[in-house]
Q: What sequence folds into this?
């Protein structure tokens, strides 16, 4: 009977030690879970969230209009039938040119450069433009550029002296070449620039040499149209 009691007590002590050991192990596992398991779970949850964000398409809208295109300088007047309109804007943007009230579209290249050949109408032509980006935003309009198409040569009249005139003596050695052309014309006499008044009148004082004297007059307007005349006079001392 005593032997049986000792066995029971021994078994109880073993069970108690096992229970204590199991409790310690359980607490250790719980502690390890809190120290290592929760951060790992949090990182895993964050990874899943980032993955969902990456796979979800992001919608973005561009509502910022581009800057107006830059149009390279054009002549104030020309005698050519057409002009090349060149300039720059955003790469791959569409440039909408307003040409005498009619709109034309030209696509800029990958560097933002564009070019368009414009057939001019007689007289004054109006040119302006705006840019439209890939999102459909349009810029403000550029300032209007005026180009005059003119293929008429300027008038040039020599009123004095007459062609073939003869001058004598020291008092007539110095003469005045005078006449009339158009306002804004560039005038040369024997390659020397001569002032043209607002009404087109001009005068040129010169001293004659012995014998034949030749005077070559060239009047060129802003469109590069040229009128040329030559007169000859004689001088005898």
A:
């Amino acid at each position: 009977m005593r032997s049986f009691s000792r066995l029971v007590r021994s078994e109880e002590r073993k069970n108690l030690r096992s229970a204590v050991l199991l409790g310690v192990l359980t607490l250790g596992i719980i502690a390890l879970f809190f120290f290592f398991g929760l951060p790992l779970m949090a990182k895993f949850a964050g990874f899943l969230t980032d993955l969902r964000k990456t796979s979800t398409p992001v919608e973005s809208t561009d509502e910022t209009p581009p800057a107006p295109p830059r149009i390279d300088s054009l002549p104030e007047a020309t005698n050519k039938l057409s002009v090349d309109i060149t300039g720059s804007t955003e790469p791959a943007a569409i440039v909408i040119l307003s040409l005498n009230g009619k709109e034309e579209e030209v696509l800029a290249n990958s560097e933002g450069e564009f070019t368009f050949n414009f057939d001019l109408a007689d007289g004054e032509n109006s040119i302006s433009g705006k840019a439209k980006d890939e999102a459909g935003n349009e810029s403000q309009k550029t300032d209007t550029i005026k180009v005059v198409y003119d293929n008429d040569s300027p008038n040039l009249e020599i009123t004095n002296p007459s062609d073939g005139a003869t001058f004598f003596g020291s008092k007539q050695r110095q003469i005045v070449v005078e006449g009339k052309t158009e306002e804004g014309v560039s005038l040369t006499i024997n390659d020397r620039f001569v002032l043209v008044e607002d009404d087109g009148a001009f005068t040129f004082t010169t001293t004659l040499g012995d014998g034949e004297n030749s005077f070559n007059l060239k009047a060129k307007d802003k469109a590069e149209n040229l009128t040329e005349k030559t007169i000859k006079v004689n001088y005898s001392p």
